[in-house]
Write a structure and sequence with these properties.
The complex is a heterodimer. Chain A is built from no helices and 11 strands. By secondary structure, chain A is mostly beta strands. Chain A has a single domain, classed as Immunoglobulins (Immunoglobulin-like, Sandwich), CATH 2.60.40. In chain A, about 40% of the residues are buried. Chain B is an all-beta fold. Chain B is built from no helices and 11 strands. Chain B has strands spanning about 5, 10-15, 20-25, 30-40, 40-50, 55, 65-70, 75-80, 85-95, 105, 110. In chain B, the strands form 2 sheets. In chain B, strands 2, 4, 5, 6, 9, 10 and 11 form a 7-stranded mixed beta sheet that branches. Chain B has a 4-stranded antiparallel beta sheet with strand order 1-3-8-7, with no helix packed on it. Classes of the chains: A mainly beta, B mainly beta. The interface of A and B includes residues 95, 96 and 105 of A.
């Protein structure tokens, strides 16, 4: 079974402060991990994909297979980062075709 | 390229009725996945279609069904609606047959009265 856990439902920081959104996963194999973001009144959109190792909007995420974690980090939060963030996992093989398993999401609020 | 589109954007139905939702993927994408989003359960996978074939199905009752056409457009159908079916239904498309980034539509908000 595959599972994604985001332990924080709400996270508040001040502008310019570092932010870390936690994500832990459970999967027997090598999954693909994603971070999706949903800004107010907008559709769900991809923020990061672990395989690409890119930094998008200043966010980075490192896959730690030993701790089965994929935490999202940004050194200096901006007000426009306020949104709902979802960590998602994609497995391999028949029962995983086209299936993303999402965490419950973390609402990030960046205060001025 | 135009993004994933879903129609209608809002629907109100009564218990016992059935409903059909439509999804047009990004041009060239052959895989379409459907998800149900509710405040209590979050985002849950319904099913995935690739080249008109359902390849995967989530843990939902048989009242939830879908299909995909030769142009990759997809529909999902919910029969005998229940109050608990009220949700935002999202579809997502991707290019590849296997693991690849999924691009989401805006969703159809279904309210069952």
């Amino acid at each position: 079974a595959q599972r994604v856990t985001q332990p924080e439902k709400l996270l508040s920081v001040f502008k310019g402060a570092p932010v870390e959104l936690k994500c832990n996963y459970s999967y027997s194999g090598s999954p693909e991990l994603f971070w999706y973001v949903q800004y107010s009144r907008q559709r769900l959109q991809l923020l990061l994909r672990h395989i690409s190792r890119e930094s998008i909007k200043g966010f980075t995420a490192d896959l730690n297979k030993g701790e089965t974690s994929f935490h999202l980090k940004k050194p200096f939060a901006q007000e426009e980062d306020s949104a709902m963030y979802y960590c998602a996992l994609s497995g391999h093989g028949g029962t995983s075709y086209g299936k993303l398993t999402f965490g419950q999401g973390t609402i990030l609020t960046v205060h001025p | 390229k135009a993004g994933v589109t879903q129609t209608p954007r809002y629907l109100i139905k009564t218990r016992g009725q059935q409903v059909t939702l439509s999804c047009s993927p990004i041009s060239g994408h052959r895989s379409v996945s459907w998800y149900q989003q509710t405040p209590g359960q979050g985002l849950q996978f319904l099913f995935e279609y690739f080249s008109e074939t359902q390849r995967n199905k989530g843990n939902f009752p048989g009242r939830f069904s879908g299909r995909q056409f030769s142009n990759s457009r997809s529909e999902m159908n919910v029969s005998t609606l229940e109050l608990g079916d009220s949700a935002l239904y999202l579809c997502a498309s991707r290019w590849g047959q296997f693991t690849d980034t999924q691009y989401f539509g805006p969703g159809t908000r279904l309210t069952v009265l």
